[in-house]
Amino acid sequence: MKPTPLLRIVLVLAVLLALWLAMATLANAQPVQVTDDRGRPVVLPRAPQRIVSLLPSLTETVCALDQCHRLVGVDRYSNWPASVQKLPQVGGGLDPNIEAIVALRPEVVLAATSSRAATRLESLGIPVVALEPKSHADVQRVLGKVGQVLGVQDAQRVWRVIDAGVSAAAQSLPPGVQQTRVFFEVNRGPYGAGETSFIGETLARLGVKNILPASLGPFPKLNPEYIVRANPDLIMVGQRNAEGMAQRPGWHSIRALREQRVCIFPVEQSDVLVRPGPRMAEGARLMAQCLAQKAPGARP
Hints:
By secondary structure, this protein is α/β, with parallel strands linked by helices. The chain has helices spanning 5-29, 56-64, 98-103, 118-123, 136-150, 156-171, 198-205, 224-230, 239-242, 255-258, 267-273, 280-294, and strands at residues 32-35, 41-44, 51-53, 71-74, 108-111, 128-130, 181-187, 191-192, 209-210, 234-238, 262-265. Strand 1 (32-35) and strand 2 (41-44) form a beta hairpin.
């Protein structure tokens, strides 16, 4: 009895599915080697299926590559996407819970280069890939590195979406906001986002002027008087750090505060803005909205 056309189609699809699964299994079984941001080669016997992430931007990168299901634990600050909030928390990069990490049996740990976990975990036989993006180029590079670790093809597709989103945010702005002088405070101290940080690079692409030059570094701690002298037109700050800003010595004279040109971002938006990762385009849109509403040259 000859198979019907429908049955032949089903059989062909079944064979193709089996071939695809076999190829995927073979790809995941291949050894993986990557050089991390410490300059150290890390060799894994295969693409890891059990991953612990100790940096929110790396957690978000794994998920942006559609591999959230491989995460078995995260640091206490990883909170996006919402699904990672259900995972075991293993402390932070500076105070990791080594025992909790080991108990999760990870095949690899993703961490910042500044994390205190790496040496101890490696002494226990757990591979660590240390990556710490600070600029747009770093984000693009780290996407490629994480994609390499996970065995994900064309990880740069995520970067192309980010890059296009930042460009779209810039194009949405009216010409009147160009050259607005901006201070972006990332933390009390105050610490600001300089021109060489990923935040500073986004501000530059939006066409505004950062009051913190490249010579100060990406995230310098500043003398509050420096901000008074710089006299920014507009201030961007997260809700966590905004309280009492106007009461800082001399700050009442800053133009941005006098004219109420301050964008205070709620916690959820602040997290987006200060993480160098897949949500940078969303961060650019938030900055653009702030400029369109508060910049001196914006329409009322």
